[in-house]
Structure formats: C-alpha cells, structure tokens
Amino acid sequence: MMNDSDACDGLDQRIAAAIQINPRAGVAEVGRILGEHERTVARRVQRLLGTGAIRCTAEYDPLHSGLGHSVHLRLRTAMGCPENIPQGLAKHPDVLNVAAVSGGAGLLWCHLFVEGRPRLPSPLKGVPGLADATVLSAHITLRSFRTEAEWHAPVLTEEEEKRLRASLVQPLPGPARRYDLTPTDRRVADVLTRNARISLTDLGKELGFSTATAGRRVASLLERRVLRLRTVADPAVLGLPVKARVRLKIHPAGLETVGTALSRCPEVSFCAAATGRHNILADVCVEDETRLYGFVVDTLGALPHILDCDTEILTHVSGHGSAATDAP
C-alpha cells in the first residue's frame, strides 16, 4: 500500500491501468503507447511495485483448470470485525481475498478457492477470530461475466487500450475446455503468481528451461484460459477509493442479459452468476458515494429482470489470490 508521502497523480493512474490491461507489458511499450519517456515510466513502475501500490500476479481459472471451485461466503463474526481478522483470514491457504462490510457489525465477504466439492464452512476452521463465525450465505460461481483480472481503471483512451491488448496472448478459438495441469504447468504458474512480470529468460533459468520453452509454456496456459494474469492495484492509485459489493436477485430468464450488461460497465470490476437467492454478485469501484448512488439508480435501475438489490460498501480488502499457488 502507498503511504501518504507517496505522491500519486494522473500518470500513476494511467500507468497502473496500462499494466492492469497487460501485466507483462514492458516499460518501453507502455511509454510508447502512453506518450511518455521510457525512463519516466520505468521509475514510476519501479516505485509502484516497490511500495506495493500495484502487484502483478497470476491466478487459476477454477472453471477451466479443474482444480476446484470459486466460492463467495458472506460471514458474520461473533467478535465484530477489527482489521486484524480480515488480514488473518486472508492468510488462510484456501482464501483468495477478504473484505469487511463498512458499518456491518462483523460482516465479512470471503472469496475461497476450494478443492473438490465445497464443504462449508469447514475451510475456515482454525482461523483466529472465526471460531464462532456464522455463514450467512454461500455462493458458488456458475459463470464469470468479468473477473478482476479482466478489469482496469477507466482512464485510458480506446486507442491506448487497443494497442496494449495487441501484444497479449490470445485465447484459442472456440469454447474453453477443462485442462488437466501437468506438474510443469504448476511450476510455471507458481512463478508467475509470485511475479507475473518476470522475464522469459529469468523464468527459464529458474525452472531449467530455454527462453523459448518458457515462452511456449506461458502461452499455453494463457491460451487455454487456465491461468489469468492480473495486476492488483491500490484504490488510492486508481482514484477509485469506494468499492461496493452488489447482490442482485435476477429472474432466470435475465441472468445472461444482466450479467453481460454489467460486464460492459467501466465501474464493474467483477461480475458472476452464482448459486443462492441473490444469483448475481458484482463489485463496483467508483470515486465516491455519489457516483455509487448514480450507478445504482441509473445503471441498475435501467436493467430489466432485477427483482431485488442489496448494496454494501467494502473496507479492509486483504489478500490477492495466494490460494491459487497452494492448489494441489
């Protein structure tokens, strides 16, 4: 996280957004596309990475890797929700991220990557402060409309976004199929999870490959949609400090329509159809509460098929996909 002394300006936001779109983009490429000097971009990227304002990682796609299931739990803790509880829970090997609900008197959202068929709340046993936690609802992801890996801050031009995507590894045509990972695949994924910006030369040296073999291994995982590269960014850098979880109850006939529409909204960083009474979950990142109100009234209010809506502002977001590296 950035400290108050770490200056953050519009160029930081643009660079962070560029690396969100293409986590492996080099500083020369980013500078050329954004119209900035390479050395300036290099200094900014080094500072953003060094302060933890951005972090480039990778995560398995549960639906395509076959390693497990993506599950969102809404919890109430008996001890309230001091900041140390989300941070402690985020260290659990099954947990991808945790967020407390602002003013929610012990309410938490916990995103899990669960091996096999989920048996809840057993994955949370042994977590300090959660011995008496109550699972209020559990939502198993059925279809992802937008993952956080696919979202970026809406601060770049359409042409800049297009040029950044031009060097991305493109998925193979046709519907993605489940792919059985090899031990070598998992070694490659583990390194990318720790640092998605590692050079192919360094990746090859670490794993005993040639640079060309390292490139082919990375491309294969991305083409098959088994692995997603992701840049996690501090909201202070993006200028979007207000994050909210929206739970929607949608008529079954409208799930695809609503999910697709939300996935196209620049404010929506995550959207998925899931099990449960509220069958669409979405996260919204905006500048302030006024913009959040506008999203609820203008965007959600204009969509058909919505039968119920619940909005919660999130705080103390902790953890960024570490569970993926611990999958067997």
Describe this structure in words.
There is one protein chain. The chain is of the alpha+beta class. The chain has helices spanning 10-21, 27-34, 38-50, 62-65, 84-90, 158-165, 183-194, 200-207, 211-223, 235-238, 255-263, 289-299, 323-326; strands at residues 54-60, 69-76, 95-101, 107-114, 134-146, 227-233, 242-250, 268-274, 280-286, 306-318. The protein is built from 13 helices and ten strands. The strands form two sheets. It has an eight-stranded antiparallel barrel with strand order 2-4-3-10-7-9-8-5. The radius of gyration is 20 Å and the shape is globular. The model is unreliable at 321-328 (pLDDT under 50).
Count of extended strands: 10
Radius of gyration, CA atoms, in whole angstroms: 20 Å
The helix/strand class is alpha+beta
Q: Please tally the helical runs, counting DSSP H or I stretches of 4 or more residues.
A: 13
Write down the overall geometry. Answer: globular
| H/E topology pattern | HHHEHEHEEEHHHHEHEHEEHEH
Helix content: 25-40%
Distance N to C terminus: 30 Å
Topology readout:
Blueprint: H1 10-21, H2 27-34, H3 38-50, E1 54-60, H4 62-65, E2 69-76, H5 84-90, E3 95-101, E4 107-114, E5 134-146, H6 158-165, H7 183-194, H8 200-207, H9 211-223, E6 227-233, H10 235-238, E7 242-250, H11 255-263, E8 268-274, E9 280-286, H12 289-299, E10 306-318, H13 323-326
Antiparallel strand pairs: 1-6, 2-4, 2-5, 3-4, 3-10, 5-8, 7-9, 7-10, 8-9
